[in-house]
Amino acid sequence: MTKAEVIVAIADKTGVDKASVSTTLESFFEIVKDTLAQGDAVYVRGFGSFVNKHRAAKKARNISAKTTVMVPAHSVPGFKPAKEFTEQVKASVK
């Protein structure tokens, strides 16, 4: 499902026009990105958590150049689904 399909589905379900739904959805994404960039997490009860996952510094190999490089410690965005969400998906997968 694409973002456009999500917008249409929400508009159909709620009766709100697509432009308003699109603006709201884009605002939600911006808030999540900005919050994670500040180092905080976003918790949505019953859905899941958007969190920063910390990666330690490590050595990596460039196989073609046969060199070793250090990858510095960094954070990557992650999503941890809520227990109810996980159970719903497990029950519906065929």
From TrEMBL:
Pfam families: Bac_DNA_binding. Coiled coil: none annotated. Keywords: DNA condensation, DNA-binding. InterPro entries: Hist_DNA-bd, IHF-like_DNA-bd_dom_sf. GO terms for cellular component: cytosol. One of its GO terms (biological process) is chromosome condensation. SUPFAM superfamilies: IHF-like DNA-binding proteins. One of its GO terms (molecular function) is DNA binding. CDD domains: IHF_B. Belongs to the bacterial histone-like protein family. This is Integration host factor subunit beta. It comes from Emticicia aquatilis.
